[in-house]
Design brief:
single chain, alpha/beta, two-stranded antiparallel sheet
Length: 250
């Protein structure tokens, strides 16, 4: 299993914090957000390599981080050579770029690099192995308004994904999808097919409604805290919770 961490965005909503520093390298206490994400990935025995895909602007920041990083898995930083929001490849475009560049012919764990959480990714992998199908990751969202800013899934009783909408105006369920995905080896070439058909290359969740039309996809539903560091408010709230010792408490 290979892991691709998506870190090529420009995080303009977090300005001025991210004018000269990528969002994933913002500090929470003595660790960066990325440190916390990679620590979780390090727990998965199946993962062989971690690829962090970023842009030209922040490439050196990530290389410096990787050189100082002392983790269990090899980490390689990949430059997608984009320079602004206007010429970015999009998350799915970046995933395809890494697949092609590294010749990945293996199952893939795809994750955002700006979400921190307190559940074990091994639980996610265990369900993936049990179902032997592509997997998404979801949890129940208490605040209805938050669902407008994320992917929302409809599930069958067995956890099969029956429907999926990215940032819906009228969410059909309270199951918000986290930007963590497990794709089987035979799904990897389908990323290219999806893009060749002219589909949206941006948020990674756009791939899911297309994929469920091709093959079964299941969801791992977790009961834990996940924090998306997407705005100054969410970052400062995480800092405040960390200081109080309540980072992962509801």
């Amino acid at each position: 299993m290979q892991c691709v961490l998506l870190a090529a965005g420009y995080a303009t909503r977090l300005y001025p914090l991210t004018e000269n520093m990528p969002k994933a390298l913002l500090k929470l206490g003595d660790k960066t957000i990325l440190d916390m994400v990679v620590e979780k990935i390090d727990e998965i025995d199946d993962v062989e390599n971690i690829y962090v895909v970023t842009n030209e602007r922040f490439y050196k920041n990530f290389v410096d981080w990787a050189e100082a990083h002392k983790g269990k898995k090899p980490v390689e930083v990949i430059n997608d050579h984009t320079t602004t929001n206007d010429n970015r490849k999009g998350a799915i475009g970046d995933l395809k770029y890494v697949i092609d560049l590294k010749g990945i012919d293996d199952e893939i764990l795809v994750m955002a690099s700006d979400n921190i959480f307190d559940f074990s990714l091994n639980d996610f992998v265990d369900i993936y192995r049990e179902k032997n199908c592509d997997m998404i990751c979801a949890n129940r969202i208490e605040n209805y308004e938050d669902l407008h800013a994320m992917g929302v899934a409809e599930l069958g009783e067995d956890g099969k994904v029956l429907g999926f909408e990215e940032k819906p105006e009228k969410p059909k369920t309270d199951l918000g999808v986290s930007p963590f995905y497990l794709y089987k080896k035979d799904t990897v070439p389908m990323v290219g097919q999806y893009l060749q058909e002219g589909n949206n290359p941006d948020a990674p969740g756009h791939f899911i409604p297309w994929l469920i039309g091709q093959k079964p996809v299941y969801a791992y539903v977790f009961d834990a805290v996940r924090i998306d560091i997407g705005t100054p408010e969410s970052y400062y709230d995480a800092l405040d919770r960390l200081e109080k010792g309540t980072l992962f408490r509801n």
